[in-house]
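Priority: medium. Attachment 1 of 2:
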């Protein structure tokens, strides 16, 4: 080692020892007569989120001769000289009033006590502050979307990490759901029903932030057909039979007349399926179309059916329409009125002639 290097290392060692002796002597240690005891102060904790910068500020005055910022036993800055090899640490302000350094992109390892050590003409003083690093919650494990049959037991899991430890809450996103359904990592749903299917939201929260993820729960159940009405239609008119079935997976519809399946487009009939609805349409009802029809809805869990009757009604005629009095007058009644008027006129003329 060169003489210059030797003296450089010795100088740093000397500075470190001096700082420790001057600034880190705890309060209450006896001092020589005529010297003032060191002044040690503690500031309020600084709370910062992971990834954000934070500033360490220390008040100065005209009597300051030396100053430094330390992290536990490591010197970050001594005056304007940077001792830390961490590129995130930088000097912001050093003047007669303030000594401030900055640490960018804070990590959990940056948490701990920081000390501003100041040497004045009269005595040394230290100001300490504890930095608390908060880590926003992150959901690390969550159940995948699932599909189960009605009546099965369901368990959803949501595990999160963070600092402070996050609180996990499950909610059922549903118009009928009220408030959280669980405040645990595991959500148990025994004998699930179709009313409990949908989106379940897991939220992990702490003082730093909130993380939210969702799980879709699909409940399979066999078809259930809604009540249907019989239809009355006159001959030659259009008729539509309607069938509605609730099912997961969606039901497949079939239409039957007696035991014979009806095919789409044959004999003037059309079958149209729209999700949970099925329509059997007769474009021009004939006498042979009247009768009993069966709608069958099927999925992998079962089937259901309902009977619908298409019956004949009379077509309205003009004689059945409501009419006001005197609205219709036939030709004979008009002729009779003309003859009656003529007779009265002849009688009046005869009486006038006789009077003369």
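Attachment 2 of 2:
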């Amino acid at each position: 080692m060169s003489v210059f290097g030797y003296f450089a290392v010795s100088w740093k060692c000397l500075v470190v020892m001096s700082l420790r002796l001057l600034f880190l002597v705890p309060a209450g240690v006896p001092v020589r007569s005529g010297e003032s005891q060191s002044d040690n102060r503690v500031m309020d904790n600084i709370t910062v989120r992971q990834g954000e910068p934070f500033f360490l500020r220390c008040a100065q005055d005209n009597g300051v001769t030396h100053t430094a910022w330390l992290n536990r036993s490591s010197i970050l800055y001594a005056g304007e000289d940077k001792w830390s090899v961490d590129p995130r640490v930088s000097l912001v302000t050093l003047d007669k009033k303030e000594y401030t350094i900055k640490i960018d992109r804070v990590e959990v390892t940056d948490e701990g006590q920081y000390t501003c050590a100041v040497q004045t003409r009269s005595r040394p003083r230290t100001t300490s502050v504890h930095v608390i690093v908060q880590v926003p919650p992150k959901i690390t494990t969550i159940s995948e979307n699932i599909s189960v049959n009605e009546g099965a037991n369901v368990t959803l899991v949501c595990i999160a990490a963070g600092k402070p430890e996050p609180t996990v809450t499950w909610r059922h996103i549903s118009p009928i759901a009220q408030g959280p359904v669980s405040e645990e990592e595991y959500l148990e749903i025994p004998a699930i029903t179709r009313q409990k299917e949908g989106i379940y939201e897991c939220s992990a929260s702490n003082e730093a932030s909130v993380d939210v993820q969702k799980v879709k729960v699909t409940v399979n159940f066999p078809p259930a057909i809604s009540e249907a009405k019989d239809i009355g239609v006159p001959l030659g008119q259009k008729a539509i039979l309607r069938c509605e079935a609730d099912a997961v997976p969606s039901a497949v519809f079939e239409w039957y007349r007696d035991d014979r399946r009806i095919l789409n487009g044959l004999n003037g009939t059309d079958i149209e399926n729209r999700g949970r609805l099925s329509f059997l349409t007769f474009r021009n009802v004939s006498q042979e179309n009247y009768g009993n029809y069966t709608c069958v809805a099927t999925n992998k869990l079962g089937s259901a059916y309902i009977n619908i009757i298409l019956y004949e009604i009379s077509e309205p005629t003009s004689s059945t329409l409501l009419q006001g009095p005197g609205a219709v007058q036939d030709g004979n009644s008009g002729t009779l009125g003309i003859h009656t008027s003529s007779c009265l006129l002849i009688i009046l003329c005869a009486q006038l002639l006789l009077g003369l």
